[in-house]
């Protein structure tokens, strides 16, 4: 462990320690709050619905369904339909185009949050009201008090947490549209957050708020290295983000170490607010530079996190849902440090937190906090997915009445004006904390492939195949079967598409060049979150097509049938991850192709 004096020595971006008692009192209050709301789940839910409906009684949306100012559950459930984004899209477009009337919410829409979920290839736009920030801040304020129950002394150092803002744009009507965390980091709630010894970051705001992802990451890594002994937890929002940071270190440690050795900042860092802030922080430290050279020049990067940041107690990253694929790599780089999945939320609403944050990833459950919104649940059964029509109201279950072991799809009603909105997440109830259910995040509906925050569904993949196939026409070639795989063995991960081709003119097969272009054509067809990951965030690598021998997909079917699949019902899986299947496919590969360039992407929406 680092010596105490090092932990306590104030850095230029640190403020003096607050008296422990004030913090303890705040923590105790936070824990008491959790107990209170979770003991009264149903009555809190009733009150929340009442508040939301009273607040929005005069909105066009609620009036459209003749709610007539009613605020009770029965009227609400009988009159207001369960909807998807597509149902709301025309009204959302009106707001985006500048309609300032109270369509969804009594409060003015302050901005749009751009969800990583997409509709027609573009990020969904979620109307947001300024007032909601306080509610979300409240949820954030509960996280460390919960964590402190499990991990002591987190006020004795800092978090190396890689936080980024992303591109923002304006709608035709002049409203800002940006991702939820970009909005939060740019808010006064974050920028002018009061001193809290449990929430000190090594990254200065100037680095977090820098829109250039290279400069932001470089500076955050540099600060993390300079303060390496003070670091008590290392993290990013999602596991993919933390691994990207490790990859960044692999690629840039020489320059970083040079900066530390000389006390000068790389010429690649040009953002004036960063250069000004780093001028105060960066002092020549040849000894630290030597240490970084020694650790990073080694071939062996196993446990690199604990070698460079020896006081790290846990990794602060979400490893549930699509992020579970990164657990083995995180374990490799951290020597199996605990991974804390602290909260569950979305652009639409923050849902809740993990009351046992140091649990094994397979045991992670999130308690939906009854004060955050009004929550209903569609019982979910994979074998008979529910279709909801207005004529036969769906049997939605209230938060307090879900049953342990059962699967549900989450439906929310929010203060921002979403009413009975299907989020698209499938959850399973694991247990109850007081009267509040805890949920395991099972998966997002209809998502086939995901590397970072991208989510590609079956129809998007199909469209990609169709668009790429156009290039094969002149070679009289068609794609007869395909499947896909999210390859996260290298960082950043990338999509792999297996193709079985029918080449009608064997003397003129498609050239390598054309198959490479097919990769790019697929990428151009994928949604804007994917393309942003490829272009702006560098969080996704070039798409790969692996052409397999003729007959491979028949072998795949034989394999499935040998394991009990019904021959009549057999469908080619459009995404695979099961090792024996991967091995079969990979052993039949005859050629491999990569996208030769990045697809097009700009923050502006295509429609
Ligand atoms: P976005 O609207 O882009 O912020 O994405 C929100 C979605 O990310 C949620 O609806 C979930 O599908 C996913 N998500 C958020 N938090 C978690 C979590 N803790 N574990 C798994 N998936 C999550």
Automatic annotation (TrEMBL):
A Pfam family that the UniProt record links to this protein: GH3
InterPro entries associated with the record: GH3 (IPR004993), GH3_C (IPR055378), GH3_M (IPR055377)
GO molecular function list: acid-amino acid ligase activity
Gene Ontology cellular-component terms listed: cytoplasm
Start and end residues of each GH3 C-terminal domain: 460-578
Record's keyword terms, sorted: Ligase
Span of domain GH3 middle: 366-444
Domain of life: Eukaryota
Family: Belongs to the IAA-amido conjugating enzyme family.
Protein name: Probable indole-3-acetic acid-amido synthetase GH3.1
Gene name tied to this protein: LOC107487700
């Amino acid at each position: 462990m680092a010596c105490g004096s090092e932990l306590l020595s104030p850095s230029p971006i640190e403020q003096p320690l607050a008296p422990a008692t004030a913090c303890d009192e705040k923590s105790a209050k936070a824990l008491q709050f959790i107990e209170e709301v979770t003991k009264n789940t149903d009555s809190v839910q009733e009150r929340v619905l009442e508040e939301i409906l009273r607040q929005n009684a005069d909105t066009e949306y609620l009036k459209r369904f003749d709610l007539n100012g009613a605020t009770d559950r029965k009227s609400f459930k009988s009159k207001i339909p369960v909807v998807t984004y597509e149902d709301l899209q025309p009204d959302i477009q009106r707001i985006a185009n500048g309609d300032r009337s109270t369509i969804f919410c009594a409060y003015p829409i302050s901005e749009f949050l751009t969800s990583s979920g997409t509709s027609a290839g573009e990020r969904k736009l979620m109307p947001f009201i300024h007032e909601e920030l306080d509610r979300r801040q409240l949820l954030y304020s509960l996280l460390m008090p919960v964590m402190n129950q499990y991990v002591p002394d987190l006020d004795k150092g800092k978090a190396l947490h890689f936080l980024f803002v992303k591109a923002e744009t304006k709608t035709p009507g002049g409203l800002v549209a940006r991702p939820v965390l970009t909005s939060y980091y740019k808010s006064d709630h974050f920028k002018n957050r009061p001193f809290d010894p449990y929430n000190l970051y090594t990254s200065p705001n100037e680095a977090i708020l820098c829109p250039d992802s290279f400069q932001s990451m470089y500076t955050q890594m540099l600060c993390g290295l300079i303060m390496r002994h003070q670091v008590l937890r290392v993290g990013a929002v999602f596991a993919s983000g933390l691994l990207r940071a490790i990859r960044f270190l692999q690629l840039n440690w020489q320059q970083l170490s040079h900066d530390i050795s000389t006390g000068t900042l790389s010429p690649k860092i040009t953002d004036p607010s960063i250069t000004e802030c780093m001028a105060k922080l960066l002092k020549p430290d040849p000894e630290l530079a030597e240490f970084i050279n020694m650790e990073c020049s080694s071939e062996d990067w196993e446990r690199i996190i604990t070698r460079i940041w020896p006081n790290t107690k846990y990794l602060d990253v979400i490893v549930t849902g699509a992020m579970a694929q990164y657990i083995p790599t995180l374990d490799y780089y951290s020597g199996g440090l605990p991974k804390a999945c602290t909260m569950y939320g979305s652009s639409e609403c923050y849902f809740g937190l993990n009351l046992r944050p140091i649990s094994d990833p397979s045991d992670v459950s999130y308690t939906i906090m009854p004060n955050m919104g009004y929550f209903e649940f569609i019982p979910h059964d994979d074998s008979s997915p529910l279709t909801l029509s207005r004529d036969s109201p769906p049997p939605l279950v209230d938060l307090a009445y879900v049953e342990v072991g059962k699967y549900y799809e989450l439906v929310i009603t929010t203060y921002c004006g979403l009413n009975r909105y299907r989020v698209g997440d499938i959850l399973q109830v694991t247990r109850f904390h007081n009267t509040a259910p805890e949920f395991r995040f099972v998966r997002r509906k209809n998502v086939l492939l995901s590397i970072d925050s991208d989510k590609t569904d079956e129809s998007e993949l199909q469209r990609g195949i169709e668009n790429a196939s156009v290039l094969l026409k002149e070679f009289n070639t068609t794609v007869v079967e395909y499947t896909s795989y999210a390859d996260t063995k290298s960082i950043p991960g990338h999509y792999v598409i297996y193709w079985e081709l029918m080449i009608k003119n064997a003397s003129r097969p498609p050239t390598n060049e054309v198959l490479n272009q097919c990769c790019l054509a697929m990428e151009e067809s994928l949604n804007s979150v994917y393309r942003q990951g490829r272009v702006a965030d560098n969080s996704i690598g070039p798409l790969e097509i692996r052409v397999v021998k003729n007959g491979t997909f028949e072998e795949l079917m034989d394999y499935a049938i040998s394991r009990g699949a019904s021959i009549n019902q057999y469908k080619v899986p459009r995404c695979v991850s099961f090792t024996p299947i991967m091995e079969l496919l990979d052993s039949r590969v005859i050629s491999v192709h990569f996208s030769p360039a990045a697809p097009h992407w700009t923050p502006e929406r295509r429609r």
